[in-house]
Specification:
The chain is an alpha+beta fold. It has a domain at about 20-64. The protein has one helix at about 1-20; strands at about 20-25, 40-45, 50, 55-60. It is elongated.
């Protein structure tokens, strides 16, 4: 029974990572509340890359 739940848990977590549409990669901030403080957002379906700060998201690399 424990093996069944272990396999089910691994399957659920792996399937959510495989089918995720967006991945969020945090960035280390050099100065607080500056424009370089934010995170990169990758769209795994289209390949577009965005940089998001506290106010807006801008596309930095359009999908090919």
């Amino acid at each position: 029974m424990k093996n069944f739940f272990l396999v089910l848990t691994v399957f659920l977590f792996s399937s959510t990572l495989l089918f995720a549409e967006y991945r969020l990669e945090p960035v280390n901030c050099t100065l607080k509340k500056k424009s370089n403080c934010g995170a990169y957002l990758y769209n795994s379906n289209t390949g577009a890359t965005y940089f998001c700060d506290s106010e807006k998201c801008t596309e930095i690399m359009p999908a090919l």
